[in-house]
Specification:
Layout: E1 16-23, H1 30-49, E2 56-64, E3 68-71, E4 77-82, H2 87-90, E5 93-96, H3 102-105, H4 109-120, E6 124-127, H5 132-138, E7 153-154, H6 164-181, H7 183-193, E8 199-200, H8 201-227, H9 234-240, H10 245-256, H11 260-278, H12 283-289, H13 295-306, H14 310-319
Parallel strand pairs: 1-2, 1-5, 2-4, 5-6
Antiparallel strand pairs: 3-4, 7-8
């Protein structure tokens, strides 16, 4: 795989080809992946309609870790190529689709290893929507929304509110076209595909970037709840969000309303309450199962938060009708 800066051609050279891969998995968003592929196809078409030959042709491949049929979140199936071998040597950019199946996909060791190997080859990797969770699981740094300084009008074609994921994928593809072929062609792609909001792309980009950050905060909050029984820390949560600890702390407090440490403690105490109510486990064992080290520490935290001991809480919960 050619390293950054070593490519033998400029992206504006005649008949240059840029190979784009879109990684799919069971439960991916067909709307987002399809929008990205369609926008790059339109960019190819618009160039062929001009007086000059293509300055750059996008070749888009749907790929997966094993190849073959992959089902989207709406249960439709698409055919994918296996991303392996010689495909690594021609890949310029890789997009990771989001979707309802992203959590399950993040536990697929083969997929996670694949993303790491692609990253090691200096391929640009961009997440679409919650696809960033896969990159976080792989420990791969990724490109967030590219900056769109110049406005591109997204013309309204109907009065229906757009699917957020479609506009998100559209802006990701327009940013790539703008970088490779200039703002004018990106504007023409936007005009051809349209949107349902008469907004400048720059303004919409800022709004979606903020939304994406909010989604990151909520996703990290869910991750904390799901893993609170384990010996996790704020540093681990920041790493899962692909953010520095400082930025993660600021974002989490702004979006969730409390610090990650406080949120983690609340999640552990909530789990403790459930175990006290539903089991006869000793307090010391419950403390170990909820990530609170030992019974003495649990008792101190419990008294501070609830003004009673864990044993008292258990007794009162069982007196309720």
């Amino acid at each position: 795989m050619p390293r950054s800066g070593s490519r033998a051609y400029s992206v504006r050279a005649s008949n240059a080809i840029k190979h784009i891969g879109i990684v799919l998995y069971d439960g991916f968003s067909l709307l987002a992946a399809g929008t990205l592929a369609e926008a790059l196809h339109v960019a190819n078409e618009l160039q062929s309609e001009g007086p000059n030959d293509h300055s750059l042709t996008y070749r888009v491949n749907l790929v997966s870790v094993r190849g073959g049929t992959v089902s989207c979140s709406s249960s439709m199936s698409v055919w994918t190529e296996q991303l392996a071998g010689r495909q690594f040597d021609s890949l310029d950019s890789l997009f990771v689709a989001g979707g309802t199946g992203v959590a399950r996909a993040s536990t697929d060791d083969n997929l996670i290893d694949l993303l790491r190997r692609v990253s090691d080859r200096s391929v640009t990797i961009t997440a679409i929507g919650n696809g960033h969770m896969l990159l976080s699981a792989a420990g791969v740094g990724h490109r967030d929304w590219p900056s769109m300084k110049q406005g591109i009008q997204l013309k309204s074609k109907s009065d229906v509110v757009p699917e957020h994921e479609r506009d998100q994928a559209l802006m990701t593809s327009l940013a790539l076209v703008k970088k490779d072929l200039g703002v004018e062609l990106a504007r023409r792609v936007a005009d051809r595909l349209g949107s349902t909001a008469d907004l400048s792309l720059a303004g919409a980009f800022e709004e979606m970037y903020d939304t994406t950050l909010a989604q990151k905060a909520r996703a990290s909050a869910r991750w904390i709840v799901q893993n609170c029984a384990k010996p996790i820390s704020v540093v681990d949560a920041a790493r899962m969000s692909s953010m520095s600890e400082r930025n993660f702390l600021r974002l989490f407090k702004r979006e969730i309303g409390v610090t990650p440490s406080k949120y983690l403690l609340r999640a552990r105490l909530d789990l403790t309450c459930k175990l006290l109510e539903s089991s006869d486990l000793p307090v010391d064992k419950i403390a170990r199962r909820t990530g609170l080290s030992n019974g003495e520490r649990l008792s101190k935290l419990f008294r501070k938060e609830f003004s009673m001991s864990p044993t008292e809480y258990r007794g009162r919960s069982r007196q309720k009708p």
